[in-house]
Amino acid sequence: MRLLLLIVAIVAVFLAVRTLVRSTSNRKQVRQDERPERLKEGGAVIRCAFCGVHVPEAEAYRDGDRLYCSPQHAEVDRNRSDADSRTEDD
Q1: How many CA atoms lie within 13 A of 3 on its CB side?
Q2: pTM for the full model?
Q3: 39: buried, middle or exposed (CB in 10 Å: 19+, 13-18, 0-12)?
Q4: What backbone phi and psi angles, to 5 degrees, belong to 74?
Q5: Widest pairwise Cα distance in the chain
Q6: What is the helix (H) or strand (E) element at residue 75, kind and residue range?
Q7: Could you tell me where the DSSP H helices lie in 2-61?
Q8: Is 25 exposed, middle or buried (0-12, 13-18, 19+ CB in 10 A)?
Q9: What is the mean pLDDT of the chain?
């Protein structure tokens, strides 16, 4: 019985040490990389006026004073705004 407990204790210590060593090496690697390459480029991120998705400002589409994630959302929002203004006129 004592032998079984000793073996279990040795295996538990081995697994704990191995886990600590692996987590330490992973932390060092994350610190070296810090930010993904796509975030190192910088630049502002904007929110699409239609769907709310966030895109880099350099990739955004401008329609008047509003910014969109795609030209399709700019067109849909413009058509929706036009339909809303026609409904108000009636």
Answers
A1: 0
A2: 0.49
A3: exposed
A4: -65, -45
A5: 90
A6: helix 71-89
A7: 2-33, 37-40
A8: exposed
A9: 82
Q: Looking at the predicted structure, is the pLDDT value of residue 28 above 70?
A: no
| Rounded Cα–Cα distance for residues 40 and 82 (Å) | 40
User: How large is the average pLDDT for residues 12-36?
Assistant: 75
Q: Is 54 in contact with 46 (CB distance < 8 Å)?
A: yes
Strand, helix or coil for residue 23: helix
Q: Say if residues 76 and 50 touch (Cβ distance below 8 Å).
A: yes
Place of tokens 């993904």: 36
Count CB-CB contacts under 10 A for residue 56.
14
Q: What's the CA gap between 9 and 12, in Å, rounded?
A: 5
Q: Where are the domains of the chain?
A: 2-35, 43-89
